């Protein structure tokens, strides 16, 4: 499932100005360099290179609308949900459904269905917004085209919703920095147990981040790289989608 929040994460991650402010995050304070340090510095160099010499892209919409891209998007959207009734229904008339989506995209008459609001507890209570399955196919079709363009300039230590990253890799990276800062668990002089090691860790979260993102600013940032007006229009339609009622996937 591609949730609205996940889609927004992928798009919002590209902010060249904030990347520039975050460049020191990956720098190694030690003289010796590990492979991870070298990878991090490579990521910094890539960000700098793209900020000062940013390649832009046109003529993307035709690729996005192709039946081949839509079929790949369908396979990604159904992953882990092949037994859901709405997936079975869509697959039953797959060729017809994909052609309908293609026609709507080409004629610029595609509009996403209203999002559905769901409250889950796992155990923390969270509010998520789910899209209709046909809209998830469109999300994947869009991401298939634009993700490779933005992936090149993401900072190295960004792990959410990225290929070859994820939660496990983030934990492993954190463990690497934890050991480095604490000098492999060096205890404080005043420690009373083995848990009081040197170093600090800041845990922070932005409250209601997706609710507070300014979409106008976001679109302007995306326009720096994507010069295809039809792709921009599609992104705007998805971002402006509204929430309707309570319920599950549809």
SSE topology sketch:
Elements (H helix, E strand, L loop, with lengths): L3 H9 L3 H6 L13 H18 L8 H5 L1 H11 L7 H8 L1 H13 L8 E7 L3 E6 L2 H19 L14 H16 L27 H4 L2 H9 L5 H11 L3 E4 L4
Parallel strand pairs: 1-3
Antiparallel strand pairs: 1-2
Summed up:
The chain has helices at residues 4-12, 16-21, 35-52, 61-65, 67-77, 85-92, 94-106, 133-151, 166-181, 209-212, 215-223, 229-239; strands spanning 115-121, 125-130, 243-246. By secondary structure, the chain is mainly α.
Report on the structure:
By secondary structure, this protein is mainly α. The protein contains twelve helices and three strands; from the N terminus they run H-H-H-H-H-H-H-E-E-H-H-H-H-H-E. Strand 1 (115-121) and strand 2 form a beta hairpin. Helix 5 crosses helix 8 (133-151). The chain is elongated and about 70 Å long. The chain starts with a helix and ends with a strand. Residues 14-32 have low confidence and may be disordered.
Primary descriptors:
3 strands, 3-stranded mixed beta sheet, 12 helices, 250 residues, mainly alpha
For the largest beta-sheet, the strand count, sense and barrel status come to: 3 strands, mixed
Gyration radius, in Å? 21 Å
Helix content: 40-55%
Give the class from helix and strand content and strand pairing. Answer: mainly alpha
What is the typical, i.e. mean, pLDDT?
A: 80
**SS elements, strand count:** 3
Tell me the overall shape: elongated
Report, as a whole number of angstroms, the end-to-end distance. 11 Å
Secondary-structure element series: HHHHHHHEEHHHHHE
Q: How many DSSP H or I helices?
A: 12
The tally of domains stands at: 1
Strand order of the largest sheet: 2-1-3
How big a fraction of the residues is strand? 5-15%
Low-confidence stretches: 14-32
């Amino acid at each position: 499932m591609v949730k609205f929040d996940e889609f927004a994460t992928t798009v919002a991650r590209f902010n060249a100005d904030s990347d520039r402010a975050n460049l020191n995050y990956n720098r190694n304070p030690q003289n010796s360099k590990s492979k991870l340090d070298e990878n991090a510095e490579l990521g910094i160099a890539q960000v700098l290179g793209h900020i000062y010499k940013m390649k832009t892209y046109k003529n993307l919409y035709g690729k996005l609308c192709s039946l081949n891209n839509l079929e790949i998007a369908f396979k990604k959207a159904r992953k882990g949900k092949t037994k859901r009734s709405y997936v079975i229904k869509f697959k039953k008339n797959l060729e017809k459904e994909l052609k309908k989506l293609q026609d709507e995209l080409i004629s610029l008459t595609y509009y996403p269905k209203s999002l559905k609001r769901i409250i889950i507890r796992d155990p923390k209570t969270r509010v998520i917004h789910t899209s209709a399955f046909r809209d998830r196919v469109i999300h994947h079709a869009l991401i298939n085209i634009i993700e490779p363009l933005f992936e090149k300039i993401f900072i190295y230590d960004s792990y959410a919703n990225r290929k070859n990253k994820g939660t496990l890799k983030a934990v492993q990276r954190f463990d690497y920095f934890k050991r480095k800062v604490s000098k492999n668990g060096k205890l404080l002089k005043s420690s009373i147990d083995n848990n009081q090691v040197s170093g600090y860790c800041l845990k922070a979260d932005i409250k209601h981040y997706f609710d507070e993102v300014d979409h106008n600013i976001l679109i302007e940032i995306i326009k720096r790289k994507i010069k295809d007006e039809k792709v921009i229009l599609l992104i705007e339609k998805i971002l402006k989608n509204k929430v309707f009622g309570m319920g599950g996937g549809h």
